[in-house]
Write a structure and sequence with these properties.
With 153 residues, the protein is mainly alpha-helical. It is built from 6 helices and no strands.
């Protein structure tokens, strides 16, 4: 179960990154050209939030029960804080991803309530910050907690 969940979580990150880039690019283009907010803009944001939510659920399954790395970190949390790789998994990764999901959800609500002229700019800000949070807290190769770019089951 661990390896399958880990592989799905790893592969779905690419979907999240692609959706994030598309949504932010679409919002940036709409803000720049002063294009009206369309149902397609709304659907793109919705799909980004859905993908991030699925990622969060898979990540929480790993974090709270399946991952041997977090299990080791929770055994001695103080010692884990002294190890950069364990600290990344126990604190930094989960914090950054929770922040990204929160920004996407708050952004989606704020965008829907905003005046039509401000929606694209708000989408750039909230979805852009969510994308940055995801990019910063992915375990890229070269980091102390590095993982492969593609992990197949």
């Amino acid at each position: 179960m661990y390896l399958l969940t880990l592989a799905l979580h790893s592969l779905l990150r690419w979907v999240a990154l692609v959706f994030g880039a598309l949504v932010v690019g679409r919002a940036f283009g709409g803000a720049r050209s002063r294009r009206d907010w369309t149902p397609a803009d709304d659907r793109a944001g919705l799909w980004l939030v859905i993908v991030l939510d699925v990622q969060l659920l898979l990540g929480l399954a790993l974090y709270l029960g399946l991952s041997p790395i977090t299990r080791i970190a929770f055994e001695d949390f103080g010692a884990a804080m002294g190890n950069s790789a364990l600290r990344f998994w126990a604190v930094e990764h989960i914090f950054g991803m929770l922040l990204a999901v929160a920004l996407a959800h708050v952004g989606r609500v704020r965008i829907r309530r905003a005046a039509a002229a401000r929606r694209h700019r708000m989408a750039v800000i909230f979805f852009g910050l969510a994308l940055v949070a995801v990019l910063v807290t992915i375990p890229w190769p070269g980091m102390p907690a590095a993982r492969p770019l593609f992990r197949l089951p």
